[in-house]
Structures are given as structure tokens and as C-alpha cells.
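User: quick one, sequence for these C-alpha cells?
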């Protein structure tokens, strides 16, 4: 016997998606925050490493997923690579700027920066998620 179609909640999400979305962004925020805290070396090197982690890795994952889905019509909304790249670039630039500005006066600014990144991603990610999505392609 087949399962019935999931009931949609406002916004077109299934009921189980919202908690999973928040948990996913929380985990991503914790990982990015920890990466920020364990930084070593000059700030510009750390910014470059974070840019690679936040921009290159998702791009590679996107291309791999796209390759797997080649020939199959998209039936669900997907995250737009350019939109997520801009959002992540803004986060890295903001974190670098704040760290650079307050590093002389706050010796433990990296911990505060990691905490701020964690909170920003965990709370802001789910709220902005719908703006990062693209509509599925419609077969002609």
C-alpha cells in the first residue's frame, strides 16, 4: 500500500521539513562557528580558508548533485547557487571586518565571531531559506 501524499503546510513545506531545516542550519552554524574559532595564522589567510570552505565546497556539491540529476526533471525547489554564494560571501566579509576592527581591543574576538556566525546561520538561515530557493523547472 502506498503512502498518501504528505500534507502541505503554508509555504509548500511538508510538516517534517521545518524542524529538519532548523536543525540543518543549526548544525551548519555550529560547524562554521567552530571553524572560525579554531583559526590560526593571519586574518587574511583565515578569510581565504573560510571562503574556500563556504563557497567552493557547496559549489562542488551542487555540481555533483546536478550531474546525478541530469536528465531528470526537477520536481522540488532547489537552493540557488548564486544566491547562497552571495549570502555566504556576505557572512565571511562581515565576520572578517568585525574581527579586524575589534581584534586590537578584544583579545578573544574569534570566540565572539564564531558565536555570532553560529547564531546568525542558525537563526537567520531558516528565516531566509525561502529567498534562496528557485522554482522547479516546468517540462514543456
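Assistant:
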Amino acid at each position: 500500500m502506498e503512502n498518501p501524499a504528505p500534507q502541505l503546510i503554508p509555504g509548500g513545506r511538508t510538516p517534517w521539513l521545518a524542524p529538519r531545516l532548523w536543525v540543518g542550519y543549526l548544525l551548519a552554524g555550529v560547524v562554521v562557528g567552530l571553524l572560525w574559532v579554531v583559526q590560526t595564522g593571519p586574518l587574511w589567510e583565515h578569510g581565504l580558508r573560510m571562503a574556500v570552505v563556504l563557497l567552493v565546497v557547496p559549489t562542488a556539491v551542487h555540481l555533483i548533485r546536478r550531474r546525478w540529476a541530469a536528465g531528470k526533471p526537477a520536481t522540488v525547489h532547489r537552493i540557488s547557487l548564486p544566491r547562497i554564494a552571495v549570502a555566504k560571501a556576505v557572512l565571511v566579509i562581515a565576520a572578517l571586518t568585525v574581527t579586524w576592527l575589534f581584534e586590537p581591543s578584544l583579545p578573544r574576538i574569534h570566540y565572539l565571531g564564531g558565536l555570532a556566525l553560529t547564531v546568525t546561520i542558525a537563526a537567520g538561515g531558516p528565516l531566509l531559506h525561502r529567498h534562496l530557493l528557485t522554482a522547479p523547472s516546468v517540462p514543456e
